[in-house]
Amino acid sequence: MKRTKLILRIVFILASIGSLAFVPWILVKAWILPLPDTVQEQVNEAIDYDFDGMVVYVDKAGQSPALYTAGWHDREKKIPARPDALFKIASIGKLYVAVTIAKLANDKRLSLENTLADYFPELVGKIEFAERITLRLMVQHRSGIPNFIDNPAYWENRPNFNKEALELAIEMPASFEPGDDYEYSNTNYLLLTQIIDKVVGYNHNQFIKEEILIPLGLNNTFASLREVNIDDVMSGYYVGEEHDFKTEEQGMLATAADVGTFLRALNDGSLFEEGEQEIYSSIYVYEHTGLIVGYQSIAKYFKDIDTVVIQFNNTTNFDGYDWNLAEIMYSRIVKIVRD
């Protein structure tokens, strides 16, 4: 019996030692290092983890908003990171779309209980359960409509939010029946933008500009690369590739300050007119992250310290630890701000 226990103990110790080989030590190091005294020091430290560039915006109540940068805006041209750089905010843009849906619902221009089939009867039989999928479920990612980026064919040319991307989703079976589960799906928001186009009678980006951007004075938020000077766009990189992804059309662009201003207005309610915030709170979240090739972003508001923190970094690696590292850097910045 003693011999058996000894053998089991040795096996357990050896297994524990062996498992250490699989520990992502770079994440452990990033997490346990002593916290710097300032946000700028932490942003500088992030570059030591092979992020090409970073921009951070902090808006703490009672203090003037502050911007911090490190690394490169364009590493080939050796242009330092710019606090006023335009950045591809990716899925953070879903917040703007969800606000638009809430505003239109409040104005009775659409109903959250209308179905996908009500707006696009031609999709019946192409998207499963189209007659049962409501706008509410689409906003909440509870529709079961598959995410077009999960189709392997997407990665051949990475189409933007367009008809080609929708066709990729149509080829796929439903993930679940409407309302039965949750699955984040870009296809939901592709369809929601098209529904907004139908409801207002013109492009949803123009509606967002008129109803959200202009009232908040967000002069550095844009729908497309076609609207901006490409030199103002922060370069985007993928680990192991020399290519700069900034010239690819990938949705909304904004400065960190503009995203921060929007996020505060979203959270303090100043973005909404009477009745709109109640609707919004019932359908979507008040913070978001974004991830596309070359661009990672985090946008959150912390009620306990009445602070908005936006973080942009322009290096991605879907097979590595870049996203985890970005989250660790972000959490450390929040700790510094909180302390």
**What composes the largest sheet?**
6 strands, antiparallel
Number of strands: 11
Uncertain runs with pLDDT below 50, 5 residues or more? 10-22
Helices and strands: which structural class? Answer: alpha+beta
Structure notes:
- This protein is of the alpha+beta class.
- It is 40% helix and 14% strand.
Break the fold down into its secondary structure elements and pairings.
Layout: H1 2-19, H2 25-32, H3 39-47, E1 53-60, E2 66-74, E3 79-80, E4 87-88, H4 93-106, H5 116-119, H6 135-139, H7 154-157, H8 163-170, H9 186-200, H10 204-216, E5 221-222, E6 237-238, E7 253-254, H11 256-268, H12 276-283, E8 288-292, E9 295-302, E10 307-313, E11 315-316, H13 322-338
Parallel strand pairs: 6-11
Antiparallel strand pairs: 1-2, 1-10, 2-3, 4-7, 5-7, 8-9, 9-10
Helix pairs in contact: 2-13, 3-13, 4-9, 4-12
Q: What features would you highlight for this structure?
A:
339 residues, alpha+beta, six-stranded antiparallel sheet, three-stranded antiparallel sheet, 13 helices
